Amino acid sequence: MQTILYFDICAIPIFVIILITIFVRKLTKGKSNLLFLALITLSLAATVTDVITELLWRSLPMQPAEILFGNIFINLYYLFRTSSVLVYLFFIFSVTGTWYRIRRKRIKALMFVPYAILLLTLLSNAFTGAVYTIRASTGYSRGPMITVLYAVSLLYAFFGTFYLISCRRFLTVEKLISLLSLNLMTLGSAIWQYFFPQYLIEMISSALATVLIILFVLRPEEVSDASVDTLSFEAYKTELRKVLLTKQKVRIAAIQITNAAELRSYLGEERYLSYVAHVIKLLNSMFIRERIFFNIYFEHPGNIYIIVDTPDYDIRDAYRRLYTELRRRLEQMDASGERIRPKGCGIRIPDDLNNFDDIIKFGREFADHMGGDTVFADAADIICSQDYKIVSNMDAILNRAISGSLFRMYYQPIYSFDRGKFISAEALIRLFDDEFGFVSPALFIPAAEKRGVILPIGDFVLEEVHRFISENDFDELGLEYIEINLSVAQCLQDELPEKLAALSDKYGVSPDKVNLEITETTYEEMGSTMSVNLKALADMGYTFSLDDYGTGYSNMQRVSRLPLKMIKLDKSLVDDMISEDGRAIMRNTVKMMRDIDKELVAEGVETKDRLDDLHEMGCHFIQGYYFSKPLPPAEFVSFLKTHNSPAH
Ligand code: C2E
Ligand code: MG
Ligand code: MG
Description:
The protein contains 28 helices and 18 strands. The chain has 648 residues and is α/β, with parallel strands linked by helices. The longest helix has 32 residues, at 64-95.
């Protein structure tokens, strides 16, 4: 019987075009893409072997060599063909995000037992000839056991079809239809070919169905991020949604390049991204050795997420091993001297977090909750920490605080070496929440700024401090002024000068009793409103301090140009004085600031040694736990009465 070969031959260029498309569109990253690549390769191989065997059967009588090749190629054909149907099943598990189900025994059996039967059947044919026979005179003819081979393909196709239908809610309509079409085509053409073996339409129909898949299922822009040659953040979100919907258990290794901003400005965007691509490549090669299922995703500018599809995998242990290796290998290639500072965190889904927004947010923020030297943490530890609980409940906390007036003002005394007594204090806001207790302003002030509720809080601070000043006799206490922290939003308020003027009138507080603290970031973000405000307030008699000097990119020129009376040296600079370098930096900073007539306040002084050193270096004022923590108003007043009295 002559077979009609044209269909098969037409399938070849279609598969080749799809293969080219895969490489041109870089659909070569991630499990789904790799399985699709395997599917196309196997289908192409099946088609080619099919054509070869069909041609061999035509030259009758067959030579012994032809019979041998016929045997080889027909076995290869059945192997490639059935494997492609099996790979397609794997592909379905992968694109529906239900890969983890493959580990179930029943599913494993359904996938592999028929395959084993197929292999045994093919092998046994050498002895029984029950599947097919090849004779010199008649060529190829089927035996009764051929049904087994078709049955295996049919079984896979049936299973795939029902499985897809059961997963329909994870897929869009066009994806579902495209995915189903391959199974339906396999089913239909297998049945057709079983009854009409002369029509070789099986491969052409699967070629057409795979065209649909590459058009509607694999969209590179959704999946990969060409700038770093890995899966995109969009793909991460899609995968996460599927994981959560299917209640799948996975591990996520989140890695944050904490110095991404520095590296980007130092290397430039393009070199930075190729550096990141290199890091991802290293991670990829290291994780492959772990023998786990994983995918790597990247979120600009510096977050890498690795979803590990092996629930009992100990990600913490792996990170410890791999971190050292990653650092070592990066150092080897670091000709330019750049150093990435990664921090990692292992998240167990759904045990640690089971809500989409929480996971995304946590992946971006976990590093902020890790100590300076910690390079890896368990999500559970961070989530259990009080800080994290506070931050994630910040909306409720701020609501309660604002509506229930839960804020209080505390005062931290500031000591003057020249006068030998405490002549001022910094007003620091305090919040005691019913549920969480003390909530640090370092947590709720930035949160209030972000949520746009900082102004009423700032107004409260201004009002309270003015009231405090008016209610106390500064001369008697030995006080000269109080320092008030201003937030960026407050400084940008048009009516800030009027507000202060109104308070000054209302409480009879003269501007020289108030010193306003501003940070360097405020200067960076300030527009013209800010400069106008600053000048107006300075004209009214208010003085300014620059807070947190030494934490940002401090700029001496800017410092000298602004109307600043004082510079507050950040606690981190003071802490660094344990080292010789740190002391040299402090000594020179003090000297430089004194040369441009700034008064200096050292913050966070906790020991007598530090105090003496700073005195000797020429620092004017000291604020720190060595003297006192921030105190409630009454305690602050009695502190002054005790310590500022002449007898003391
Ligand atoms: P800041 O303005 O730099 O305030 C100094 C911080 O250092 C205070 O933290 C103070 O309690 C702490 N500190 C002082 N001496 C020591 C020490 O010896 N050891 C240690 N470990 N810490 C010391 P606090 O009160 O938690 O305030 C944190 C930040 O919150 C402030 O930093 C400031 O930026 C902001 N903040 C506080 N109160 C207000 C406010 O009323 N308005 C605004 N806008 N921001 C505020
Ligand atoms: Mg301050
Ligand atoms: Mg400060």
